[in-house]
Amino acid sequence: MAGVSVTFTVNGREVTATVDPRTLLVHFLREHLKLTGTHIGCDTSQCGACTVHLDGRPAKSCALLAVQLEGAEVTTIEGVAGPDGMHPMQAAFKEHHGLQCGFCTPGMVMMGIDIANRHEAPDEATIRRELEGNLCRCTGYHNIVASIAAGASSMRG
Amino acid sequence: MYVGQAIRRREDERFLRGRGRFVEDITLDQPIAHAAFVRSPHAHAAVTHVDTAQAAAMPGVLAVLTGADWTAAGHGEAEGVWPVKDMSGADSRTAYRPLICVDGVVRCVGEIVAMVVAEDRHQALDAAEAIEVAYEEKPANTITAGALDPDIPLVHPAFGTNEVMVTEHGLKEETEAALANAHHVTEVVVPTNRVTAASMEPRAYLGHYDRVNDRYTVWTTNQAPHIVRRYFTKSLHIPEHKLRVIAPDVGGGFGMKLYHYPEEGLVLWGAIVCDRPVRWVGTRSECLLGDTHARDHHTVGRMGFDENGKILGVKFETLAAFGAYESQWQASITNAYHFTMLSLAYDIPAIHTQVRAVYTNATPVDAYRGAGRPEAVYQVERMIENGAQEMGIDPLELRARNLIPPEKFPYQTALGITYDSGDPPVLMGKIKALADYDALRAEQARLRAEGQWMGIGISAFFDMAGAGPVKMMNDLGAKVGCYDVASVRVHPDGRITVFAGSHSHGQGHETTWSQIAADRLGCDIDHIDLVEGDTDRVPMGIGTWGSRSLSTAGMAVYTAADRVVAKAKRMAAHMMECAPEDLDLADGEFTVKGTDRKLSFAAVANASYHSGDRPSDLEIGLEETSFFDPADCTYPSAIHLCVVLVDPETCAVTLRNYWAVDDVGTVINPMVLHGQVHGGLVQGIGQALMEECAYDAESGQYLSGTFMDYAIPHAEDVPSFGLDAHFTRALGNPLGAKGAGESGTIGAPACICNGVIDALWHLGVRQITQPMTPKKIWRAIEDAKRTQH
Ligand code: FES
Ligand code: FES
Predict the structure, then answer these.
(1) What pLDDT is attached to residue B86?
(2) Atom 4 of ligand 2 has which residue's CA nearest to it?
(3) Residues B501, B455: one domain?
(4) Residue B23 clears pLDDT 90, i.e. is over it
(5) Per the structure, how many domains does chain B have?
(6) For a surface tag, which of B378, B475, B562, B744 has the fewest beta carbons within 10 Å of its beta carbon?
(7) Last residue of a domain, one of A79, A110, A137
(8) What is the full DSSP assignment across B698-757?
(9) Cα separation of A114 and B504, whole Å?
(10) Tens-digit pLDDT profile for residues B431-461
(11) Residues B622 and B652 reside in one and the same domain
(12) How far apart are CA B475 and CA B483, in angstroms?
């Protein structure tokens, strides 16, 4: 393997690494940085369990190579809570029972934050439509939708 | 009191912060090697040659192993935990799912032929691709209907038939007579589509062998870790005390993660051979192909009614797919959970059912959320719906006339099962009000006049949840005792660890078991921690499946906690110089009744471990274990009602409303209960409208290998739900609780299909197979037009 060097920011910390060029971002996060909150649920970019923020927008880390990220800023689920507790979106998921097994949850929270960033007060139809890239097999979505609506409202303060 | 409160979940924060610990997340101090598998691309073939030489020489490769190596090592197969028995009582034609192909024949796509273990994932995959396997294709059959016809290829020619077994239950002559004398008979052919659980976390296993201490460890995505040890006694011949099974956080199971999958045995084998920990994490394609599939019944049913729509008798003939092999719990469906529940919520005097189980060249079928009951409800409810429509009786009214009245409880069905408690007419009244049924019928008529197709679907049923008791489940075929276990350990500082034999993979036991324990122990819920999923820490367990954990493990927590309290009271009474009966325990303090004399629970706990001043016959320590064998199963019931709109242009179905009224007995945590119902409903909706494990009929190729081809519902495909409840106490456990995990998947498919048929009845449509895709609906309408002209 001819390694390629790449430098980018993850959760506010600069990371430089030499990686096998075929390394996916999701594997890099999980295996090199031990940030195992980002999950892999499919092979075809359908499930959204791997969703992170890339330069402030949601991105599926299973569909990116680590070497593509030179200079980029990545935030994972481990990077969203503040020093004094969970992010309002995380708190809303707990309050509204928006998770069961917790496997889709990091991706749902990352997507929820992005929905809240882009919509003033997202209604049910908007949230459901915006979740087209995220699958959950446990919750039936009912409480995820409620969590994102509540999280968006508390993010506005 | 914590029980009954919507306590927010204590497990949530670690998942929300990305700190869950799933099998794929486990790290060890030794580097972990990776396994990759070579799988059969054919539905049925002889394996004539396997060439591993090139792969073995590739970089990073630690071992390449085949069925010949497996046989040479003397390894075996995993036995059924719930094996089939046919009517004669004899063992049937059993062929257990092999871990790796050992007899030179592959019988379904995906069967494992070879394994590579390598330093990293890419090296393992590259080497697996370099293995050359020569196959000689044989004719295959993946279709359940007709699997017993002449000329259909045999999956196991040695048996001379594709039939695994035959069972019959119920009242044969009475049913024939009822049908012969009926005023009206409805007949339907109702195949139940083959689906799969598709938990979001793929299956994954990590095997480790400690040669020095001769100890094995498996980290597994499994719902019943103690049962995993039992499988390994037969597959790798490892004694149970030598094997530690850890099921850490598991990302959904739904029954599908109960079994001893080939990869689970093979990674531990690889670890032994390579003297290195070995992990495999399934890709989604491997999982959609290799996870057990579910349902796949082909049923012909006849139901007879009197002139008022009262059901007189029902007869079923079912072919139940097994797939290519028998999976370990398969007969829990055919021999226990399907036939027993065919009376649903109705008072039906005569029922007879015959099930013939069949082999096909497809992935093995096993239990998935509902296991036999979704099939039963679909089979019965489709007949009730068509019967009502044919007789011109309002479908809800016809059902109401047939519901089991409250005064008939405990109610013994024509199949011999006794529902301990319930009140279906109350559920019916509630759902009628919740949905404003009469207004919906008026709306339907108005829309129909405008050319819009709106349908109302209904289903009403009982579930048999909470397996055991041990004896009853043994009698239904279980080879594992269906009890469960909990230990309550009070530490010297008064804080508590509960160990339970159940396994939470989304159900929220860290919250609900703690609610039960805190109430019994009179303590703060935050003084309790729960341990599950580790056979070295938890004494024993039968695991979480079949909506059983609350009424078995949960009751073991309840019982063990009560024993702790009884013992602590004796110590406290000694310390306070009173009688144990004079003491109350609440808010972490013992109080002498009618006085203000108090002693903290923590002081008693400390004395229990460290004080020599104690009753002479009271043993040191404060820890109790309960092996809880329930007095009965639990029989939750529910009625579902939905509104569907079928687009006359595109034939697409919009599920506009969905209501469910459940009777699950005493509720521990209504928030968790509702979550369980929501999740089950959406899986049931998927079965009705979208999901299918499809095979190409000609080649036997599997067509549903990605989430592009296997459609699980997205948020936009489903509505929010309207739930209500009515509670009758279960009689078989001290809390009066009933199982609640499966109601959604059990009732939804039938409810939605009835809704679509109701929407299209006026066009002449009588039946559409699931999943009810726009294409099938369009075809059904076209066919109906043709037959009417
Ligand atoms: S892992 Fe499924 S979308 Fe990325
Ligand atoms: S909570 Fe289990 S997949 Fe969403």
Answers:
(1) 78
(2) A136
(3) no
(4) yes
(5) 3
(6) B475
(7) A79
(8) TT--B---STTTS-PPPGGGS---EEEE-----SSSTT-B---SSHHHHHHHHHHHHHHH
(9) 30
(10) 999 999 999 999 999 999 999 999 999 999 9
(11) no
(12) 14
Q: Which amino acid is at B625?
A: T
Q: Whose CA is nearest to atom 3 of ligand 2?
A: A136
Confidence check: pLDDT of A68 > 90? yes
List all residues of chain B from 384 to 423 with a beta carbon under 8 Å from chain A.
none
Helix, coil or strand: residue B342: coil
The CA distance from B764 to B248, in Å, is: 53
B188-201: buried (b, 16+ CB within 10 Å) or exposed (e) per residue?
bebbbbbbbbbbbb
Task: Point out the ligand nearest to the CA of residue A42.
Answer: 1
Residue B12 is nearest to which of A37, A99, A134, comparing CB atoms? A99
How many Cβ atoms sit within 10 Å of the Cβ of residue B69?
18
Claim to verify: residue A66 and residue A92 sit in the same structural domain: no
CB-hemisphere CA count at 13 Å for B209? 18
Contact B715 A145 (CB under 8 A): yes
Measured between CB atoms, which of B13, B202, B682 is closest to A41?
B202
Say which ligand is closest to the CA of B20: 2
> Domain with A75 in it: what CATH number?
3.10.20.30
**Distances from the Cα of A94 to the Cαs of A90, A116, B9, B126, B398, in angstroms?**
7, 17, 7, 42, 43
Record: contact B712-A137, CB cut-off 8 A: yes
| CB atoms near residue B513 (< 10 Å) | 28
Are residues A63 and A38 part of one domain? yes
Contacts of A129 in chain B (CB under 8 A): 716
User: Do β-strands B484-490 and B496-500 pair in parallel, antiparallel, or remain unpaired?
Assistant: antiparallel
Average pLDDT, stretch B265-276?
A: 98
pLDDT attached to residue B1: 94
Helix axes B774-788, B743-760, angle to 10 degrees: 40
Read off the pLDDT of each residue in B275-294 and give the average, rounded to a whole number: 98
Q: What is the CATH number of the domain that holds A104?
A: 1.10.150.120
Distance from CA of B254 to the nearest CA of A (A): 9
Choose the final residue of a domain: B572, B602, B628.
B628
Domain boundary among B580, B604, B628: B628
- Cα-flanking dihedrals φ and ψ of residue B542, to 5°? -110, -10
- Range of the structural domain that residue A114 is part of: 88-156
Residue B85 pLDDT: 80
Whether pLDDT at B709 is above 80: yes
What pLDDT is attached to residue B91? 64
Helix/strand/coil for B686: helix
ipTM for the assembly: 0.98
The predicted-structure confidence for B69-116, as pLDDT tens digits, reads as follows 999 999 999 889 998 887 776 667 999 999 999 999 999 999 999 999
- Give me the residue from B18, B250, B505 closest to A78, CB to CB: B18
| Range B617-635 burial, b when 16+ CB lie within 10 A, else e | eeeeebbbbbbbbbebbbb
Q: Which two tokens stand for residue B16?
A: 């929300």
What is the total residue count of chain B?
Answer: 789
Domain ends where: A79, A105, A135? A79
Distance, in Å, from the CA atom of B279 to the CA atom of B268, rounded to the nearest integer, reads: 9
**Which of B391, B191, B189 lies closest to B301, judged by CA?**
B189
Domain assignment present for residue B393? The answer is no
Same domain? For B29 and B120 the reply is yes
Q: How far apart are CA B150 and CA B426, in angstroms?
A: 50
